[in-house]
Structures are given as C-alpha cells and as structure tokens.
Model the fold of this input.
Amino acid sequence: QVQLVESGGGTVQAGGSLTLSCAASTRSFSDLYMAWFRQAPGNEREFAAAINWSGASTYYADFVKGRFTISRDNAKNTVSLQMNSLKPEDTAVYYCAATYGSSRNWYRGSGYGYWGQGTQVTVSS
Done:
C-alpha cells in the first residue's frame, strides 16, 4: 500500500504563492509516477501537473503552465507543487496522486491508484 499525505494548503491573496507538499509512505517511491490534480466546487477533477520517476520529465496542464512547478525529492519521498502568481480561479482542493509505472491515462484521474486526502487552496481577490 502507498499512503499519501498532503500539506501546505491555505488561503493566499491573488498574485501570491503557496507550496504544496505530498509525503509518500512507500518503500519504492522512485518507482511511483506522481501527479497533482485539483477540483473546484461544481467542477470535474482536473489534471494539473505530473512528474516522472526520476523527476527529469514534467508535464503541465495549460492553466498552470508557467506558474506552477512540480518537483520531487526521491531521498525524502516527497513531491511538491510550487504555485506562483495564484489567481482566484485556482481555488480548489488539490490532490496528490501516484501510480506505479505509467500508462496512457497518466493525465487522467483513472490512471492513478493512490490518492491523498486533498488540501484546500483558496485564493482571495
């Protein structure tokens, strides 16, 4: 089993920054393909960013490109999402997700078997 615990959510003013962290309890963190998703009230859960096993490759949804950075520290079993230039429309619950290996559904929620509990990010205007 893989347990994912998220932290770092909170309330920030528009234009501000937050960094979310996800700590994974697993003996093989470097085998996990990691991602962040988000879900705003009334919306579908949507892909935000993903990072491969080594951290050498990252992928971003258009709405976060240039503002958010996903990274991982395999020595500490953590993945982070640095969020800059936050907008009110970024307000959502952000979820950490993981899967062993990868698949054609890496950009979809269905591609991940492990999920964190979510952390609320609220951007005020």
Remarks:
- The chain is about 0% helix and 50% strand.
- The mean pLDDT is 96.
- The radius of gyration is 13 Å.
